Amino acid sequence: MSTAPAGHIELERTVDSITVGRRHRHDLGDLAPLVESIRRGGLLQPITITLDGHLICGARRLAAIRQLGWKSVNVWVRAGVSDRLGQLLAEQDDNLLHKPLTQLEAAALYRELKTLLAEDAAGRQEATRFHASGEAGESGAANLAAPFLTPTGEARAQAARMVTGRASYTTLERIGRLEDLAADESQPEAVRQRAAEEVERIKAGGKVYPSHLRINTELSLAELDELAADVAQPAELRDLARVEAAAVRDAEQEAKTAEMEALAQAALARVKAAKAAGRKAKRPALTAVETGEPVPFPLTVFTATWDDMTDWWAHYDPAEVASALTEEQWARFEHAVTGTVAFADAARSARHSRTEHIA
pTM here? Predict the structure, then answer.
């Protein structure tokens, strides 16, 4: 029989009485080799539980013996791990020694450890105020969380070190940000959908950094779209935001992920700069400087323009317009109407020909 480590008591427990509870590991991996090993040689290292039967270490071993149909099993009962932080630290120790966590599991464990470590440190810091000697009083699992932390200090680095063995928490924070955005109902649907897709991509083994860049691009586009749709903004600014967003989306097929993020952020910066300047945003050029030829716009600009002009005539008084416009303004209006009618006739004819061809 194995010897229980210090702080543990070994006894026999019915398998059904062991409660797994909420854990960060969801993927137990291939249990077949472990099941066969236990079948041949028995359980060499007992499962560890709390006094009230909650599993601390050995989720895969417990699943294996359940597959084998065991009714009871020798367990180590560990005292002093009744609070959530203590259980997490013990779970983390078990994970380091056995099957590694997936990226999403690691991020979830990191997030909870970070919060609990900060709370634990805050509690111990508060406790020192009530001890003249300056020594902290007892605070549950505080002894498991050395060294002493400040609530806003090294909690992230320590939590990351516990989960991954390194103090760098950037990747774990990025995963958490993606999960938060996917669940945030205040975000535009496109942002939430993109974030959810990136979480699934990471779950399937994808790298985190490209997902981080793609969600940054989506956030910039969402802000551009919001400015383009904001009727409180000047028309020129809305046009600029619309054209900038369309240009970024048109580049999506050819640009690399990092380039897309840079393009989107640069586009948003230009629109924000125009807005902050308190002046009319410069309208996009309609003709090329070198040739004088019209610059082709993407179809997204066309549809957005006509979306903005839906029932525009219902908002003006013809008599007021007729008397208020100068000769030059009226000439531009007539030119726009004539060109629009000619364009509509040509597009209608092309659409009719296409329909006949399909039929």
Answer: 0.52
- Sequence length of the chain is 359
> Domain ends where: 276, 298, 328?
276
Return the H-helix or E-strand segment holding 14: strand 8-14
Q: How far is Cα 279 from Cα 147, in angstroms, rounded to an integer?
A: 55
Cα 166 from Cα 185, distance rounded (Å): 33
Q: Which range marks the domain in which residue 45 is found? A: 8-82
Tokens of residue 249, six digits:
């989306």
Q: Let me know if 157 is exposed, middle or buried by CB neighbors in 10 A (0-12, 13-18, 19+).
A: middle
Contact 251, 260 (CB under 8 A): yes
CATH number at 68 reads: 3.90.1530.10
User: Could you give the angle at the alpha carbon of 211 between the alpha carbons of 207 and 215, nearest 5°?
Assistant: 170
Considering its fold, how many domains does the chain have in total? 2
> For residue range 251-310, what is the model confidence (pLDDT) as tens digits?
887 778 888 888 888 889 888 888 887 655 455 554 444 555 666 666 766 776 787 777
Q: Give the tens place of pLDDT for each residue, 195-238.
A: 999 999 998 989 999 999 999 999 999 999 999 999 888 888 99
